[in-house]
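Let us begin with a simple case.
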Amino acid sequence: MAQELGLFAKYDLNVELQCQPGWATIRDKILYGDLEAAHALSVMPFAATLALGSIRSECVTGLVLNLHGNAITLSRDLRQRGVRDARTLRSEIERCRGTKTFTFGVVFQWSSHNFLLRSWLASAGIDPDKDVHIVVVPPPAMFMNLKAGNLDGYCVGEPWNSVAVESGDGWCPAVSAQLAPGHAEKVLMVRRDFTETHSSEHLRLIAALLEACAFCEKPGNRERVIDTLSRPNYVNASPALLRRSISGPFQFGADRTEMVPGFHRFAGDEANEPSIGKAQWILEHLLRLGVIQDRTAIRTLASGAVFRADLYQQARQLLNSTEQTNPDALELTPA
């Protein structure tokens, strides 16, 4: 939306948007300098800094692009087996023990999707490491693998849950806005050295994206967002499917349709600040996975080493100064 609204040009930035095939590719291109900045999973800057699955590279974010936006989808087969929630899924897992192990997809090992799915399973006493298989599948490939029977369910962002619901091959027992209110979903990821060598450009980039986030949050602008995302060079999904989560109501499947407040949260109430609280949610999950060994590391990483609230505040000051000199600038706080 920053590109479409002319916000990069407004801040004198020459930005080339490039689609990538998956999150691992985005990570690697950031680490090796093929990309200067990326729309990334909120866990990825921590994973790169901790060398989880990659070379060690200090990465940071000065902007949370959105909160929530994910859902858990289960197969029609599980529904026919009597599964209605995590508790009844556990019963089916126990009934099939020794004959079948159910397989679930997440978009990346180091992602909120993995955290959300594991927490949802664990809430019913299902051990994510022993009772099921969890595998990594690129978001656009989730539905076809569910339809083909390779997956029994998945946790992914929209519209890939709605694709399964629309076809009748899947249904959603839970969405992330309800499972973990306030969790950071996507961030602007850069290498730490980029913040030092291109400080001005980085702050102007954050300011431009802050304006775009504010635009997306306003209900009156959601139809334009949907129309833009539906295009072949962006998400390339039908406006009707995109509308289910962006405007609502959300169709969970199995005759359940509800408005989900904050399904996607793009701005307001400091949603965009890479705060200590947002960092701690991620780090607590990494602690549960055993990749962080003690809480001392959590305190160090959560204190501003990766989630850089200082950069966010500097960009806000830049945005505010721009608004004062340009009364036609987009409002940061949504109406």
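The second case is a distinct protein. As before, the sequence precedes its structure tokens.
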Amino acid sequence: MTSATAEPEIMPYGEFLTEEHHAIREMVRDFATKEIVPKAAAVDREARFPEETFKSLGKLDLLGLLVPSEYGGAGADYRSYAIAVEEIGRACGSTGLSYAAHCSLGVNPIKLFGTPEQKKKYLPKLASGEYLGCWALTEPGTGSDAAAQKTTAKRVGDNWVLNGTKQFITNATHADVAIIMAMTNPELGRKGISSFIVEKGTPGFYVSKVEKKLGMRGSPTASLTMEDCKIPAGNIIGEVGEGYKQALTTLEGGRISIGSLALGIAQAALDSSMQYAKQREAFGQSISKFQFIQGYIADMATQINAARLLIYHAAWMKDHGKRVTLEGSQAKLFASEISSRVCNLCVQIHGGYGYIEDFPAERFLRDAKLCEIGEGTSEIQRLLIARQLGL
């Protein structure tokens, strides 16, 4: 980066991005700067889900960015989506997380694997913002072992009956539609897992616990419990036993989005650090003149640029129909870990002010940590990368 403001748009990234991608960035950034940034601190402090922001995101076609136009969406590519997540996350980590969870997890499984009837029924409402979506895979006691599903789904006549509990589900408290992973045939292990659409208000389906979190406080995380929850037989996504395979595909795209979220938070931390370093004076000069501060900022900018290239490359591959198991995991791993590193340096540059709520540095650091855990921990990413390398 050669600009003193470290703005991403000065880097064309070769053939990864087109003029349309740059236009989407400008549009999202303009909205985020005006509508999201001013309330980001309050959203975090009050642990408040910004419903009004999501209504506006729907009107801008951003909630349906990946949804085909025939279902009311924008029909954009994954690079456009990665840019949108980055810019929203740069403005507010909480809003960025809920946005990514809605698009990648709440919408994509229906878009990719749903029946024509399911797509017609749910995608237009998810794209417009009338509905918010969530995806429920993780369970208490299973963590990263996605195949260890204890939630069950049994076919009873023209219905499926679900029983079990899901944990750490983003958007669970506000979601109108939840995609639930459940075991339909325990004897088959991961090949016995299926996925289902469950609507808010279905008898036997409820939020059982709301979590209090270190960061991303404005993005609700909760447990979902099903007790003899009866849904129509037509609410299964795809065929019986295809759920685990669907989950792997969903997570591949989701990792790119979490990497983009981490990138946005890191960029915000760099922006804040540069602004503060220029304004703060010590020993008769701006602290930006001290070599160790310059070194910190140089490292931050370099790491952010490297992460952005990894993410855009993975998104480009996905747009060209290629598998991104390796590239998505690498992008997510690197971006999330450098985000925590960059945000930690942001606090250090701010000194005592970085440790208090008057400045956003402490919020950046708290928010960034989630990206090393959600949608596959750093340890899981390393395992996936090693396997893709043939180990």
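The first helix runs from residue 19 to 45. The radius of gyration is 21 Å.
Keep these points in mind for the review questions at the end of the chapter.
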